[in-house]
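re: ur question from earlier - yeah i can do the single chain one, its not a big deal. heres the input i used so u can compare w yours
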Amino acid sequence: MKQLILISISGMDSPGLTSSITGILTQFDVNILDIGQAVIHDNLSLGILAEVPQQVDIEQALQSEAVRLRIAVRCQAIERTDYGKWVQQQGKHRHIITLLARKITARQISRLSELVAAHDLNIDNITRLSGRVPLDEESRQEQEQTRACVEFSVRGAVEDLPILRRACMELASELDVDIAWQEDNLFRRNRRLVAFDMDSTLIEMEVIDELAKRAGVGSQVAAITEQAMRGELDFKQSFSQRVGLLKGLPEETLEQVAAELRLTEGAERLVTTVRKLGYKTAILSGGFTYFGRVLQERLGIDYVYANDMVIENGVVTGEVSGEIVDGERKAQLLTDIAASESINLEQVIAVGDGANDLPMLSIAGLGIAFRAKPIVKASAKQSLSTLGLDGILYLMGLSERDTG
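and the output i got, formated as tokens:
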């Protein structure tokens, strides 16, 4: 019977190091049961769980090579019963926790790790997904918006997921970060469709409010918009009221506003990246098709569904044609697009900020409340408020290296 040995190697990394170590193990008919390697600032940590012939002193065999490579080698015998328990643990549920912030601090890591331990879960891996942080303040200031993200791979059964999600939300608020909790399944890295709300999500404004200001009814429309976004008013009714107040607005005003649309931070990077990866994209908006088409041409969006404002003789009539796109309509449109593209809803990402986005967020595999009202954040599966829209790439498990 062979002995089980955990080989721990640390020191400065160098080309061929792993090859040299495993080359020595090859001489003794060693089986590799598990292996893991990480490099932080050129400092390597390599672990190998090996099945080694009883008569072999594997640590002694590795020492001469360790001296040559200027590394430290430590070997520890592992009981077979302990190995059996470890194997049983591998069948447990796995989860991914993503910590997103403008910068990562020790306090954030400590508090999140404490939360994980409090729920009897084990951290298997911690990976930095964001790029390197410059050390000098001048370089940091040159960056328009810094992004920092660390991903935790966690193992264990979650007894009460709503309680855990609420704890994550409370901790995120306390630390002024975003914390996302996802099941680690085959869909997480296999998304195929991203659907966006438009106003205050893909762009940094509520278009109808901007139009209302130019029509001289800004305060009236803004008050109705705010109530609708908080879920205090029926969307269709409130939308009809707001559009009615725009009656008589010249079409030239729409053109002016369209020329001034400001993309939300990270929007262009996110859309460009997912399109390169072959994703389909969609705008599902309770706003106006007129502006959705402008963004479609600018960003290369595949689908646009919104409300068609009626314009006659170059003037807004205060009416819309066709069915108003409310929350339920957004969810149905998302379902229809996914079906037409043969995409499972678990492979769909939906992003929005208002109460009328909740239906589509709830059916998407990854539903994200983006810089949303408290009622929306509390109801959505995930929320993102600290970073721009490109922070969603981290929730997809993509690192800065993956996205360039």
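The first helix runs from residue 17 to 26. not sure if urs matches, ping me
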